[in-house]
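lol forgot to send this yesterday, sorry. struct tokens for the thing we talked abt
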């Protein structure tokens, strides 16, 4: 375990097994269609990569980058930093997110993408902090429900660190201390 962590919340084998299950479920649901996966940068990268490799249907990938976080604190205001390259009108769109916390980011993204008239629009998130929800978000494919703890690893960062860890861990309070956490 990395020395800045207080615990490993989800070990690598459990992560990989659940990602394979999600990929199988999505492949079944979209069988015979092409699904457009929209990854939310940057936290989605490892999850999206593993999900894609486990899917056995036609896929199309694009990315968006949104911002509401600075360090471990949400600013509450969501902004689009990078928009899609593709037109998604008439497409089956599946948002691939690392974690849904308050739900503000996904709420913003769902509203934004719905105006572009996709054929269908669903959400897949690896982690779901259901206890933190401020706005209701319809998550069709949740990976793991987790408690209200600041987590890193498997794509998730703290000030751009720890994305490379192959598991999900909880940071020690001392590693968050500069923000008074
Ligand atoms: P929401 O808008 O749902 O409050 O937050 C969504 C975004 O906040 C996620 O995409 C992620 O970037 C960030 N976030 C929320 N909780 C955590 C956490 O525990 N760890 C990390 N690294 N990022 C988080």
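and heres what i got for the seq, position by position
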């Amino acid at each position: 375990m990395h020395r800045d962590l207080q615990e490993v919340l989800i070990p690598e084998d459990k992560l990989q097994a659940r990602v394979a299950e999600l990929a199988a479920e999505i492949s079944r649901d979209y069988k015979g269609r092409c699904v457009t996966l929209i990854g939310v940068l940057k936290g989605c990268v490892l999850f999206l990569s593993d999900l894609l490799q486990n899917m056995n249907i036609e896929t199309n990938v694009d990315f968006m980058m949104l911002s509401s976080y600075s360090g471990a604190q949400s600013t509450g205001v969501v902004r689009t930093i990078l928009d899609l390259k593709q037109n998604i009108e008439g497409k089956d769109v599946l948002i691939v997110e690392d974690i849904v916390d308050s739900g503000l980011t996904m709420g913003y993204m769902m509203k934004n993408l719905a105006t572009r008239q996709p054929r269908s629009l669903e959400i897949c998130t690896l982690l779901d902090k259901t206890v933190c929800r401020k706005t209701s978000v319809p998550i069709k494919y949740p990976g793991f429900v987790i408690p209200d703890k600041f987590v890193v690893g498997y794509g998730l960062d703290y000030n751009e660190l720890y994305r490379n860890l192959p598991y999900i861990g909880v940071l020690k309070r001392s590693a968050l201390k500069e923000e008074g956490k």
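The two ends are 21 Å apart (CA to CA). anyway ping me if u want another try
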